[in-house]
Structures are given as structure tokens and as C-alpha cells.
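Field log, afternoon session.

UNIT: design team B
ACTIVITY: writing a sequence onto a fixed backbone
BACKBONE:
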């Protein structure tokens, strides 16, 4: 299988700092005030049209900030061939904006000719492993660059699975040469829902392949047995337990590009920026100890 390792994020313009999801709500604020932000990330599918206001704003912001592309539509885990037209649109977008990182999910979202508005889990089997590796090889060859694969937020475990999740992801990275995006919130959500030890999950994750981290908020419900059920909602601040897991990761691997994901119930800019400041404080990037204390207070 092909190897497309093309250097770490810093070599492609993404600093080991915090960034945030770029949302239309904040276009003007960012352009007019030029906040001190490490990078911005966009969902690739939102910019696959030829032009219009989204591209006008993104072009203006890209002139001053590094950018990462985060895909949600390739359906890497689907039991069907990759959509080559979608891959070509992603390639064109990558060439247009020259992002420092391109990432996708360990999930599937397509069936036949239909696309589902969700990122769905899959059993971790040998057949799934081979299929996913083939798909990742096709993506990396098509883009002529390395992609990152994100660990999923899951709510159940398939009895057909013969691999532990961390081993499955490690083997994918080994076979394909892809990098990894560690979503710490996803690790917490999946561990809570399936009664895993989240710290043990982090310790067993192939951290040597991690080139980016995601942090996000989640909502809390209960299942039919009264047990906690966490939903990866991206609609609120990062939970304290996720911050603690993030600190555990940073202690192991040091600062890496870290994104605050916030996709619904978008807050005012200062609240979103404060989450990025918090991440940088935990990475030891605050300018002074006083700033770090104020951020954590």
C-alpha cells in the first residue's frame, strides 16, 4: 500500500497552537479584527461550490491564517467504492487553499446512491480493515498528500468486531502511512458510552502518529438503564473531563495543532476564542503564568 507521508503539520504551515472552527457568524469579526489565532478549520463540503460569499470570505481569511480541511463526506468506512467525483472536488479544494492538514473520519455515511446526514460506526473486522486501507490509499493518491484519520464517537460495540479500536486504528496507520487526528472528546464519549476507561484508551492510542487534536463539547443523556449516554453534539464548551484527558495527551506528546470544534449553537466570538486560549494555556503556550492562571480560573 502507498505511503504518502509529507511531513508534520508545522512543515505545511499549521503551528502547534490552538485553532477554531471557522463559521459564517464570525467571518467579519475575523477579517476586521485579525485575532491572534493559530489556524482555522472548515468542513470541506461547505466549500465545494465554485464561488459565492463563502469562498470570498475564506479567501480573505486564508491570506492571513493557516487552514485545515476536515471532510465529512468521503465515507471512508462504507462497504462501497469511494465517490470519485467527491474525491476530485476535495482535490480541487485542497489545491485552491493549500491547507496544512486534510482529515476525514473513521466512519461511513453512504448507502447505494444515498448520503446520510450522520457519521456512522462500523465493526472492526479484517474485511473492514482491508477496505478502509484501500480507501485511504485512494484518497492519499488522489490528493497526492497524506491525510489524517479521526477516531470516532461511538455509542455501541459490534459483536462482529475482532479488533480493539486502538489496535484497529494503529494498524490502519501502519498499513497506509496516514496520520491520525485524535478527537479527545470522541474518546471520552465512546469510553463513557461503552464503559471503557478513557485514560487507558488514551494511553493505548498510537499517539506517535497524532498530528492534530480536536476538542469539543457534548450533551449528556441517559439510556434505558439509567446509565450516562453522551452525544457528540459540538454545541457547547469543552467539558472539564475532556480538558483533563487533553492534558494527559499533551504531557505525552507535547503541543500539537489543536482545534476547538463548535458546529451548532454558535457562540459569540469571545467565547469561542476563550476556548482556544484555554487549550494554549494547557499546552504551556500562554505568555505568562498570570495569563495561564486567569484562563484556568
Amino acid at each position: 500500500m502507498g505511503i504518502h507521508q509529507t511531513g508534520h503539520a508545522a512543515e505545511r504551515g499549521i503551528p502547534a497552537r490552538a485553532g477554531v472552527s471557522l463559521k459564517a457568524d464570525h467571518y467579519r469579526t475575523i477579517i476586521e479584527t485579525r485575532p491572534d489565532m493559530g489556524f482555522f478549520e472548515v468542513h470541506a463540503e461547505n466549500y465545494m461550490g465554485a464561488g459565492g460569499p463563502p469562498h470570498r470570505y475564506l479567501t480573505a481569511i486564508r491570506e492571513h491564517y493557516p487552514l485545515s480541511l476536515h471532510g465529512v463526506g468521503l465515507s471512508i468506512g462504507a462497504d462501497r467504492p469511494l465517490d470519485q467525483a467527491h474525491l476530485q472536488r476535495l482535490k480541487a479544494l485542497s489545491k485552491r487553499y493549500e491547507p496544512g492538514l486534510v482529515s476525514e473520519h473513521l466512519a461511513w455515511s453512504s448507502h447505494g446512491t444515498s448520503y446520510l446526514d450522520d457519521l456512522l460506526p462500523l465493526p472492526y473486522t479484517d474485511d473492514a480493515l482491508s477496505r478502509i486501507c484501500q480507501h485511504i490509499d485512494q484518497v492519499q493518491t488522489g490528493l497526492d498528500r497524506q491525510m489524517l484519520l479521526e477516531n470516532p464517537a461511538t455509542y455501541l460495540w459490534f459483536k462482529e468486531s475482532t479488533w480493539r479500536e486502538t489496535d484497529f486504528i494503529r494498524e490502519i496507520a501502519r498499513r497506509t502511512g496516514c496520520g491520525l487526528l485524535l478527537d479527545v472528546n470522541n474518546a471520552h464519549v465512546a469510553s463513557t458510552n461503552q464503559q471503557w476507561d478513557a485514560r487507558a484508551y488514551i494511553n493505548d492510542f498510537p499517539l506517535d502518529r497524532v498530528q492534530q487534536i480536536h476538542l469539543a463539547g457534548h450533551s449528556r443523556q441517559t439510556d434505558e438503564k439509567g446509565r450516562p449516554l453522551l452525544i457528540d453534539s459540538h454545541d457547547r464548551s469543552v467539558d472539564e473531563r475532556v480538558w483533563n484527558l487533553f492534558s494527559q495527551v499533551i504531557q505525552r506528546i507535547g503541543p500539537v495543532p489543536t482545534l476547538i470544534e463548535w458546529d451548532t449553537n454558535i457562540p459569540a466570538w469571545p467565547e469561542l476564542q476563550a476556548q482556544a486560549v484555554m487549550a494554549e494555556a494547557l499546552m504551556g503556550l500562554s505568555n505568562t503564568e498570570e495569563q495561564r492562571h486567569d484562563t484556568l480560573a
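LOG NOTE: Residues 126-143 form the longest helix (18 residues).
NEXT ACTIVITY: expression trials, pending approval
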